[in-house]
Amino acid sequence: MIHIQKLSKKYKGTDKFSLKDFDLNVHENEIFGIIGPNGAGKTTLISILCALIEPTSGRFTINGLNYKNNKKQLKKMLGVVPQEYALYPSLTAFENLMYFGSMYGLKGAVLKSKITEIIKKLGLGQFSGKKIETFSGGMKRRINLIAGILHSPKVLFLDEPTVGVDVQSKNVIINYLQELNKNGTTIVYTSHHLNEAENFCTRVGIVDYGKIIAKGTPKELIDTYENAHNLEDVFITLTGKNLRDHA
After folding, report:
1. How many domains does the chain have?
2. Which terminal residue of the chain, N or C, has fewer Cβ atoms less than 10 Å from its own Cβ?
3. Would the pLDDT of 244 be above 70?
4. 3-class state of residue 156 by DSSP
Protein backbone atom coordinates (compact mmCIF):
# COMPACT_ATOMS: atom_id res chain seq x y z
CA MET A 1 0.00 0.00 0.00
CA ILE A 2 2.83 2.41 0.89
CA HIS A 3 6.22 2.02 -0.80
CA ILE A 4 9.03 4.33 0.36
CA GLN A 5 12.47 4.40 -1.30
CA LYS A 6 15.50 6.31 0.02
CA LEU A 7 13.39 9.15 1.37
CA SER A 8 15.46 11.99 2.86
CA LYS A 9 14.60 15.35 4.37
CA LYS A 10 16.95 18.12 5.44
CA TYR A 11 15.29 21.29 6.67
CA LYS A 12 16.64 24.64 5.57
CA GLY A 13 19.18 26.07 8.00
CA THR A 14 20.01 22.74 9.64
CA ASP A 15 23.09 20.55 9.33
CA LYS A 16 21.43 17.20 10.02
CA PHE A 17 18.93 15.14 8.05
CA SER A 18 15.61 14.50 9.78
CA LEU A 19 15.18 11.51 7.46
CA LYS A 20 18.07 9.81 5.69
CA ASP A 21 17.64 7.16 2.96
CA PHE A 22 14.46 5.93 4.63
CA ASP A 23 13.05 2.69 3.18
CA LEU A 24 9.75 1.08 4.19
CA ASN A 25 6.84 -0.93 2.81
CA VAL A 26 3.45 -0.89 4.54
CA HIS A 27 1.12 -3.63 3.34
CA GLU A 28 -2.55 -3.24 2.53
CA ASN A 29 -4.87 -3.55 5.55
CA GLU A 30 -2.01 -3.40 8.08
CA ILE A 31 -1.95 -1.45 11.30
CA PHE A 32 1.65 -0.27 11.11
CA GLY A 33 3.13 1.48 14.12
CA ILE A 34 5.97 3.98 13.77
CA ILE A 35 7.67 4.50 17.12
CA GLY A 36 10.83 6.31 18.10
CA PRO A 37 12.37 8.87 20.48
CA ASN A 38 11.65 12.58 20.22
CA GLY A 39 13.31 14.00 17.12
CA ALA A 40 13.70 10.60 15.46
CA GLY A 41 11.91 11.68 12.26
CA LYS A 42 8.38 10.33 12.82
CA THR A 43 6.53 13.61 12.30
CA THR A 44 8.66 14.50 9.28
CA LEU A 45 7.85 11.14 7.68
CA ILE A 46 4.10 11.47 8.23
CA SER A 47 4.15 15.09 7.00
CA ILE A 48 5.83 14.02 3.75
CA LEU A 49 3.42 11.11 3.19
CA CYS A 50 0.47 13.48 3.72
CA ALA A 51 1.98 16.01 1.25
CA LEU A 52 2.38 18.70 3.91
CA ILE A 53 6.10 19.05 3.15
CA GLU A 54 8.31 17.93 0.28
CA PRO A 55 11.22 15.50 0.68
CA THR A 56 14.74 16.59 -0.13
CA SER A 57 15.25 13.40 -2.14
CA GLY A 58 13.80 9.94 -2.62
CA ARG A 59 10.32 8.84 -3.61
CA PHE A 60 7.20 7.13 -2.34
CA THR A 61 3.92 5.80 -3.66
CA ILE A 62 0.61 5.12 -1.94
CA ASN A 63 -1.63 2.52 -3.58
CA GLY A 64 0.66 2.75 -6.63
CA LEU A 65 0.16 6.50 -7.02
CA ASN A 66 2.68 9.30 -6.49
CA TYR A 67 2.14 12.93 -5.56
CA LYS A 68 3.79 14.38 -8.64
CA ASN A 69 1.25 12.84 -11.00
CA ASN A 70 -1.73 11.91 -8.80
CA LYS A 71 -1.92 14.49 -6.03
CA LYS A 72 -5.70 14.99 -6.05
CA GLN A 73 -6.44 11.27 -6.24
CA LEU A 74 -4.13 10.54 -3.35
CA LYS A 75 -5.48 13.26 -1.08
CA LYS A 76 -9.00 11.87 -1.52
CA MET A 77 -7.94 8.44 -0.29
CA LEU A 78 -6.01 9.66 2.78
CA GLY A 79 -7.28 10.48 6.24
CA VAL A 80 -5.22 12.38 8.81
CA VAL A 81 -5.89 12.62 12.55
CA PRO A 82 -3.33 14.99 14.12
CA GLN A 83 -2.25 14.97 17.75
CA GLU A 84 -3.43 18.55 18.22
CA TYR A 85 -7.19 19.09 18.12
CA ALA A 86 -8.13 20.33 14.65
CA LEU A 87 -11.53 21.59 15.76
CA TYR A 88 -13.35 24.91 16.08
CA PRO A 89 -14.14 25.33 19.81
CA SER A 90 -17.05 27.76 19.35
CA LEU A 91 -18.89 25.40 16.96
CA THR A 92 -20.86 22.34 18.03
CA ALA A 93 -19.58 18.84 17.37
CA PHE A 94 -22.13 18.41 14.59
CA GLU A 95 -21.22 21.76 13.00
CA ASN A 96 -17.53 20.87 13.08
CA LEU A 97 -18.16 17.55 11.39
CA MET A 98 -20.46 19.07 8.77
CA TYR A 99 -17.68 21.51 7.92
CA PHE A 100 -14.91 18.92 7.69
CA GLY A 101 -17.16 16.49 5.81
CA SER A 102 -17.97 19.15 3.22
CA MET A 103 -14.24 19.71 2.69
CA TYR A 104 -14.01 16.05 1.64
CA GLY A 105 -16.82 16.60 -0.87
CA LEU A 106 -19.58 15.02 1.21
CA LYS A 107 -22.88 16.85 1.55
CA GLY A 108 -26.58 16.74 2.27
CA ALA A 109 -28.42 13.80 3.76
CA VAL A 110 -25.51 11.42 3.11
CA LEU A 111 -23.13 13.50 5.23
CA LYS A 112 -25.68 14.09 8.02
CA SER A 113 -26.49 10.39 8.18
CA LYS A 114 -22.82 9.41 8.33
CA ILE A 115 -22.09 11.91 11.11
CA THR A 116 -25.09 10.71 13.13
CA GLU A 117 -24.05 7.07 12.72
CA ILE A 118 -20.41 7.49 13.73
CA ILE A 119 -21.00 9.99 16.51
CA LYS A 120 -23.45 7.55 18.15
CA LYS A 121 -21.04 4.65 17.70
CA LEU A 122 -18.37 6.61 19.58
CA GLY A 123 -20.77 7.44 22.42
CA LEU A 124 -21.29 11.12 21.63
CA GLY A 125 -24.79 11.18 20.16
CA GLN A 126 -26.31 13.15 23.03
CA PHE A 127 -23.54 15.78 22.79
CA SER A 128 -23.65 16.48 19.04
CA GLY A 129 -25.36 19.85 19.61
CA LYS A 130 -22.90 20.97 22.29
CA LYS A 131 -19.97 23.30 21.60
CA ILE A 132 -16.52 21.71 21.44
CA GLU A 133 -15.23 24.14 24.07
CA THR A 134 -17.42 22.37 26.65
CA PHE A 135 -16.02 18.90 25.85
CA SER A 136 -13.56 16.88 27.92
CA GLY A 137 -10.25 15.79 26.41
CA GLY A 138 -11.54 12.32 25.62
CA MET A 139 -14.62 13.69 23.88
CA LYS A 140 -12.53 16.11 21.79
CA ARG A 141 -10.20 13.26 20.86
CA ARG A 142 -13.13 11.21 19.55
CA ILE A 143 -14.53 14.12 17.50
CA ASN A 144 -11.00 14.74 16.17
CA LEU A 145 -10.95 11.13 14.98
CA ILE A 146 -14.37 11.33 13.33
CA ALA A 147 -13.31 14.44 11.41
CA GLY A 148 -10.51 12.46 9.78
CA ILE A 149 -12.51 9.39 8.72
CA LEU A 150 -15.85 10.74 7.46
CA HIS A 151 -14.81 10.17 3.82
CA SER A 152 -13.88 6.50 4.48
CA PRO A 153 -10.15 6.85 3.70
CA LYS A 154 -8.22 3.95 2.26
CA VAL A 155 -5.18 4.94 4.34
CA LEU A 156 -5.47 6.60 7.75
CA PHE A 157 -2.57 8.40 9.46
CA LEU A 158 -2.88 8.69 13.23
CA ASP A 159 -0.59 10.78 15.42
CA GLU A 160 -1.01 9.91 19.12
CA PRO A 161 -4.76 9.18 18.76
CA THR A 162 -5.26 8.36 22.47
CA VAL A 163 -2.93 10.85 24.15
CA GLY A 164 -4.37 12.47 27.27
CA VAL A 165 -7.65 10.52 27.36
CA ASP A 166 -9.33 8.42 30.02
CA VAL A 167 -9.30 4.62 29.84
CA GLN A 168 -12.92 4.41 28.65
CA SER A 169 -12.34 6.84 25.76
CA LYS A 170 -9.14 5.02 24.83
CA ASN A 171 -10.96 1.69 24.62
CA VAL A 172 -13.74 3.17 22.47
CA ILE A 173 -11.19 4.75 20.10
CA ILE A 174 -9.05 1.60 19.76
CA ASN A 175 -12.08 -0.64 19.22
CA TYR A 176 -13.41 1.65 16.51
CA LEU A 177 -10.03 1.83 14.77
CA GLN A 178 -9.83 -1.97 14.77
CA GLU A 179 -13.29 -2.05 13.20
CA LEU A 180 -12.16 0.38 10.49
CA ASN A 181 -9.13 -1.79 9.82
CA LYS A 182 -11.25 -4.95 9.52
CA ASN A 183 -13.37 -3.10 6.95
CA GLY A 184 -10.32 -2.38 4.78
CA THR A 185 -8.61 0.76 6.07
CA THR A 186 -4.81 0.60 6.25
CA ILE A 187 -3.62 2.43 9.38
CA VAL A 188 -0.28 4.12 10.02
CA TYR A 189 0.00 4.97 13.71
CA THR A 190 2.54 6.86 15.80
CA SER A 191 2.57 6.88 19.58
CA HIS A 192 4.74 6.95 22.69
CA HIS A 193 2.35 4.47 24.36
CA LEU A 194 4.39 1.34 23.67
CA ASN A 195 2.07 -1.04 25.51
CA GLU A 196 -0.78 0.23 23.36
CA ALA A 197 1.32 -0.14 20.20
CA GLU A 198 2.28 -3.69 21.18
CA ASN A 199 -1.36 -4.74 21.42
CA PHE A 200 -2.79 -2.60 18.61
CA CYS A 201 -0.29 -2.87 15.73
CA THR A 202 0.13 -5.79 13.36
CA ARG A 203 3.70 -4.61 12.64
CA VAL A 204 5.96 -1.97 14.13
CA GLY A 205 8.92 0.02 12.81
CA ILE A 206 11.33 1.57 15.31
CA VAL A 207 12.79 4.82 13.96
CA ASP A 208 15.91 6.59 15.24
CA TYR A 209 18.08 9.31 13.71
CA GLY A 210 15.92 9.35 10.59
CA LYS A 211 16.15 5.65 9.76
CA ILE A 212 14.28 2.43 10.46
CA ILE A 213 16.48 0.45 12.85
CA ALA A 214 14.12 -2.51 13.39
CA LYS A 215 10.76 -3.69 12.13
CA GLY A 216 8.48 -6.70 12.48
CA THR A 217 5.50 -7.87 14.47
CA PRO A 218 5.66 -6.94 18.14
CA LYS A 219 6.19 -10.63 18.99
CA GLU A 220 9.02 -10.98 16.47
CA LEU A 221 10.80 -7.96 17.91
CA ILE A 222 10.37 -9.11 21.51
CA ASP A 223 11.60 -12.62 20.65
CA THR A 224 14.65 -11.24 18.83
CA TYR A 225 16.21 -9.46 21.79
CA GLU A 226 17.41 -11.34 24.85
CA ASN A 227 15.78 -10.29 28.13
CA ALA A 228 13.09 -8.32 26.28
CA HIS A 229 9.68 -8.99 27.82
CA ASN A 230 7.72 -6.34 25.96
CA LEU A 231 8.04 -3.71 23.23
CA GLU A 232 9.31 -1.10 25.68
CA ASP A 233 12.28 -3.35 26.52
CA VAL A 234 13.08 -3.66 22.81
CA PHE A 235 12.76 0.10 22.37
CA ILE A 236 15.16 0.89 25.24
CA THR A 237 17.62 -1.76 24.03
CA LEU A 238 17.78 -0.19 20.57
CA THR A 239 17.52 3.52 21.34
CA GLY A 240 19.17 3.71 24.78
CA LYS A 241 18.17 5.41 28.02
CA ASN A 242 19.55 8.89 27.31
CA LEU A 243 17.08 11.77 27.12
CA ARG A 244 16.27 13.04 23.62
CA ASP A 245 15.21 16.58 24.48
CA HIS A 246 15.51 19.00 21.60
CA ALA A 247 14.27 22.47 20.66
Report:
1. 1
2. C
3. no
4. strand
